[in-house]
Each structure stands twice: as structure tokens, then as C-alpha cells.
Amino acid sequence: MHIFVKAKPNGCEDKVEKIDETHFIVVTREPPLQNRANCAIALLLAQYFNVEIGKVRMMKGLKERNKIFEIKQ
After folding, report:
1. How far is CA 57 from CA 11, 32, 42, 48, 52, in A?
2. Degrees (nearest 5) of the Cα angle 42, 48, 49?
3. Phi, psi at 6, each rounded to 5°
4. Which of 16, 45, 66, 68 could form a disulfide with 59 if both were Cys (CB 3.0 to 4.6 A apart)?
């Protein structure tokens, strides 16, 4: 399944907020440097969907705030 994520790096806490079935806001403490925020977002999504980190893949948005992730169940 594909989900749309609005990333918020440098946040106060790590959390995943569901807007609807395919749209999420993900806040992470990691800065957007050297791909650290993207890795943290992938890890948070894996924990949220209760899947292994290898089943979460970023499809679009490497350097953008709006991202598309693929989650394999």
C-alpha cells in the first residue's frame, strides 16, 4: 500500500499522526541532514504498521517535506 507522509523533522517528540487511511503526519527529533530524518521516519512507520523496517520503502520525496512511502504487509 502507498501512503502520503508530511514530514516534520527537528520536532519535540517522535510520533505518527493519522489524518485518514492514506495520509499521515510524522514528527521526528532527527534533523534533515545526511538522510537521518528519512531513516527515522521509515523506522517510525515500521513500528506504527507493525512490520519490519525492510518492508518500508520511500518512493518519492527524498529532499521534500511531502513524501510517498510503500508499506508491504
Report:
1. 22, 18, 7, 14, 11
2. 90
3. -100, 115
4. 68
- For 48, counting Cβ atoms within 10 Å of its Cβ (0-12 exposed, 13-18 middle, 19+ buried), the class is middle
Check: CB of residue 36 under 8 Å from CB of residue 30: yes
- DSSP sequence for 17-63: EESSSSEEEEE-SS-SSTTHHHHHHHHHHHHHHT--GGGEEEEE-TT
Grouping H, G, I as helix, E, B as strand and the rest as coil, residue 5 is strand
pTM of the model: 0.94
Distance in angstroms (rounded) separating the CA atoms of residues 59 and 63: 12
